[in-house]
Each structure stands twice: as structure tokens, then as C-alpha cells.
Write a structure and sequence with these properties.
The protein has one domain: Thiol Ester Dehydrase, Chain A (Roll). A 6-stranded antiparallel β-sheet has the order 1-2-6-7-8-4. A two-stranded antiparallel ribbon has the order 3-5. By secondary structure, it is of the alpha+beta class.
Length: 146
């Protein structure tokens, strides 16, 4: 069963200003695509509306969380608990983002064992790849498939 974008976002443990995702564009058995619009007042923007490209890691993590929410769609879990363990690689191809930017994440699960998973991720702005890397996450053992 696939959930709608709104249903997925409601089940994420992130709330208020910490929910950076605006839309889940696509989710499948191993991949997810999400969209974030950096709006006025974005939590991590500086006084001039500039945002560090390191925010990519959190956007990757929230995309992975959206993927996991969809994976357990046929259960009665209200949301998925998990944590970002870290990254082995993050390449930022720009110096900054700015309020008004529309960012899309493509994330693919490349490894899953028990409660651990790794996602290969890329971040795009207007079709241009602006960041890429891999993140490691942990969640409930019944969420990540071997």
C-alpha cells in the first residue's frame, strides 16, 4: 500500500519548523524523491536568507524517513522512529542555498540489515545536482528489510 504525500508527512516524527519536507514526489520499493522549498523564516537560514549546503544531510535523512514511513504503510504505526547515524561522504557542489530555492532529493536504499540502512542520495536545484552523499540510519528492526 502506498501512502499519499500528505499521509507520509503526517507520520514523520519531525514537526513544526523541523519538518523540512514539503512534498513526497515519488516513493517505491528502494527509492524516494522529495521536495523542499526554502521559505522565508526557514529555521537554518541566516539573516540574509542564505542556508549552508550542510543542510543537505538533514534533507537526505528526512527523505530516508519518508521512505521508511511508506515501507510500514500497511501497519498501524502512527510514525517511524529512527536516527541519522552519520555520513561517510558528502560532496557539496555549491557554496550556499537561498530562501526561495526549490530542492529535490533522490534517495536510494543501497543496504539494509536489521535496524541499519544506508542510502545513496543526491540533491538537485533546478535540475542541477548541488550535493550528493551517503547516509547511514537506524530504525526499528521491523522497518528495515534485509
Amino acid at each position: 500500500m502506498a501512502l499519499s504525500s500528505d499521509e507520509i508527512l503526517k507520520r514523520l516524527p519531525h514537526g513544526g519548523p523541523m519538518l523540512f519536507l514539503d512534498e513526497v514526489l515519488e516513493v517505491g520499493p528502494t527509492r524516494v524523491r522529495t521536495r523542499t522549498v526554502l521559505k522565508e523564516g526557514f529555521l537554518l537560514a541566516d539573516g540574509e536568507g542564505k542556508v549552508s549546503p550542510l543542510v543537505s544531510i538533514e534533507l537526505f535523512a528526512q527523505a530516508a524517513a519518508a521512505f521508511m514511513v511508506n515501507r510500514v504503510a500497511d501497519t498501524d504505526r502512527p510514525f517511524v522512529q529512527g536516527a541519522l547515524l552519520g555520513t561517510r561522504k558528502l560532496e557539496c557542489h555549491v557554496d550556499r542555498f537561498e530562501v526561495g530555492d526549490v530542492l529535490e532529493v533522490e534517495a536510494e536504499e543501497v543496504f539494509g540489515a536489521g535496524a541499519l540502512a544506508q542510502f545513496r542520495c543526491a540533491l538537485f536545484r533546478e535540475g542541477e545536482k548541488v550535493a550528493e552523499g551517503a547516509i547511514n540510519v537506524v530504525s526499528g528492526a521491523d522497518v528495515v528489510q534485509d
